[in-house]
């Protein structure tokens, strides 16, 4: 293997002497041209989303979309009361009323309002939610406690809305070391109580806050926020999207003289007499996957993984992965998969296995679609600032992954619109900050690209 100089330099760095490092690079024929500990299983973080995307393209149809239906069940009496329920039938669309797309929560409420007026309804007895797959837990058992109350780890549910997140805003103009003033929560979340244990830190320190569940089911925010803002906002996860929307819709309709008498309930089957009055489809699968990988949206990844398990009648992400690996005529060489997003610190894969899969899928009819889900380094998404100074004629399409003490990259190097190399760079437990490690890996990969001919 000729490309050893860049690797040797990295391995000599003292902060990496006790780190877990797995590196693999293959050429367009699948031949290994550079490797280090290629079979060492490490935490892959969000590079797991590449596996989720591959499996979605393999098992879900090109035309796959989620649908959220609005139905009416019951009769409307002479006073305009619906003696039954306004029914929302959701199938787990993770993108519903997401900030990533045009449909807003007020657009959704307006659609409902218009249909109610068409049917001369001015009072509703019940709001009911239905899902064909209501029994899967929203929060993965292997996710970290410090993550699950924050926006990026809220978990996917059968009904999702607004990315299942809210904004919590603070005034950080007070002196360093004091508590910032909590200004507001947007949107208003029913029954949400947050204890503020934050402190103000110096400017430039960034958001170092985490929202936690407490033993009584409420939430507390701890850590620091940088000084100097009259409205510094962080995001948390909505505890119960159905309860939130029930209250939001009730307020929206009451302002327009339509009343909702009872709080929402959940039903296990749609009554045969219910009639659909409106349907809202999600964007197509390719659009969801592109945003999922480009912006590393955990909710989208978990929603797609849940759909895979439901459609294949399988119980776990590992089951889905094992079936996929079998279709590639590969054996599962130690991959451990607990989720679809990469949030679980118990996920594990080696760089050698990653590049073997990346090479193998090039024969798939959906390969070009998969590459289109990856961000181009230096230009897009989470890779917009990585490899921005690439001076070679090679283009990099990849996915990054990070958590505390974890930096990973996996993807392809393209030349003349064809994949010349597949690569996986996995680094765990290094003795430096993630920011410094990211720059170190970037320099290593720049040097490696110059060595590849």
By DSSP (H or I, 4+ residues per run), the number of helices equals 10
Architecture of the largest domain in CATH? 3-Layer(aba) Sandwich
Through-space gap between termini: 12 Å
Helix content: 25-40%
In the predicted model, the low-confidence regions spanning at least 5 consecutive residues are none
Strand order of the largest sheet: 2-1-18-17-16-15
Shape: globular
Specify Rg, calculated over alpha carbons: 24 Å
- How much strand? 25-35%
User: Remind me, CATH topology of the largest domain?
Assistant: Beta-lactamase
Name given to the CATH homologous superfamily of the largest domain: DD-peptidase/beta-lactamase superfamily
Averaging pLDDT over every residue, what do you get? 94
Structural category is alpha+beta
According to CATH, what is the class of the largest domain? Alpha Beta
According to DSSP, the number of beta strands is 18
Order of helices and strands: HEEHEEHEEEEEEEHEEEHHHHHEEEEH
Largest sheet: 6 strands, antiparallel
Count the domains. Answer: 3
Give structural notes.
The longest helix is centred in the C-terminal third of the chain and has 18 residues, at 434-451. Helix 2 packs across helix 6 (298-312) and helix 5 (285-294) packs across helix 6. By secondary structure, the protein is an alpha+beta fold. Helix content is 26%, strand content 28%. The two termini are 12 Å apart. It is globular. It has a six-stranded antiparallel beta sheet with strand order 2-1-18-17-16-15, with helices on both faces. Strands 3, 4, 5, 12, 13 and 14 form a six-stranded mixed beta sheet that branches. It contains ten helices and 18 strands. The protein has three domains: 5-63 and 285-451, DD-peptidase/beta-lactamase superfamily (Beta-lactamase); 65-146 and 239-283, 3-Layer(bba) Sandwich (D-tyrosyl-trna(Tyr) Deacylase, Chain: A); 162-237, no CATH class.
């Amino acid at each position: 293997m000729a490309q050893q100089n860049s690797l040797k330099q990295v391995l000599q760095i003292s902060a990496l002497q006790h780190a877990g490092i797995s590196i693999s690079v293959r050429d367009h024929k699948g031949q290994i041209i550079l490797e280090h500990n290629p079979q060492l299983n490490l935490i892959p973080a969000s590079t797991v989303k590449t596996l989720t995307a591959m499996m979605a393209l393999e098992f879900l149809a090109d035309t796959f979309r989620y649908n959220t239906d609005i139905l009416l069940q019951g009769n409307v009496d002479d006073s305009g009361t619906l003696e039954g329920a306004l029914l929302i039938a959701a199938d787990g669309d993770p993108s519903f009323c997401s900030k990533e797309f045009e449909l807003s929560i007020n657009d959704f409420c307006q659609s409902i309002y218009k249909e109610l007026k068409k049917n001369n309804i001015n009072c509703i007895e019940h709001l009911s939610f239905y899902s064909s797959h209501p029994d899967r837990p929203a929060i993965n058992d292997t996710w970290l406690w410090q993550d699950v109350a924050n926006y990026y780890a809220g978990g996917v549910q059968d009904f999702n809305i607004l990315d299942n997140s809210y904004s919590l805003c603070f005034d950080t103009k007070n002196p360093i070391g004091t508590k910032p003033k909590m200004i507001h929560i947007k949107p208003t979340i029913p029954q949400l109580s947050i204890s503020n244990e934050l402190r103000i830190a110096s400017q430039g320190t960034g958001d170092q806050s985490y929202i936690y569940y407490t033993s009584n089911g409420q939430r507390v925010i701890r850590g620091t926020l940088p000084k100097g803002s009259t409205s510094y906002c962080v995001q948390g996860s909505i505890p119960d999207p159905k309860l939130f929307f029930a209250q939001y819709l009730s307020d929206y309709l009451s302002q327009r003289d339509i009343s909702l008498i009872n709080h929402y309930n959940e039903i296990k089957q749609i009554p045969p007499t219910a009639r659909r009055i409106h349907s809202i489809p999600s964007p197509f699968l390719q659009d969801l996957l592109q945003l999922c990988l480009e912006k590393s949206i955990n909710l989208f990844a978990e929603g797609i993984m849940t759909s895979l398990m439901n459609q294949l009648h399988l119980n776990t992400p590992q089951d889905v992965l094992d079936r996929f690996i079998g279709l590639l005529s590969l054996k599962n060489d130690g991959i451990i998969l607990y989720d679809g997003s990469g949030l679980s610190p118990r996920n594990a894969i080696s760089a050698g296995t990653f590049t073997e899969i990346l090479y193998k899928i090039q024969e798939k009819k959906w390969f070009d679609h998969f590459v289109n889900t990856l961000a181009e380094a230096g230009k897009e998404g989470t890779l917009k600032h990585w490899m921005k100074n690439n001076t070679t004629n090679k283009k990099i399409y990849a996915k990054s992954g990070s958590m505390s003490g974890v930096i990973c990259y996996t993807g392809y190097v393209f030349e003349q619109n064809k994949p010349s190399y597949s690569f996986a760079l996995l680094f765990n437990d290094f003795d430096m900050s993630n920011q410094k490690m990211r720059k170190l890996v970037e320099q290593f990969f720049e040097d490696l690209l110059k060595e590849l001919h």
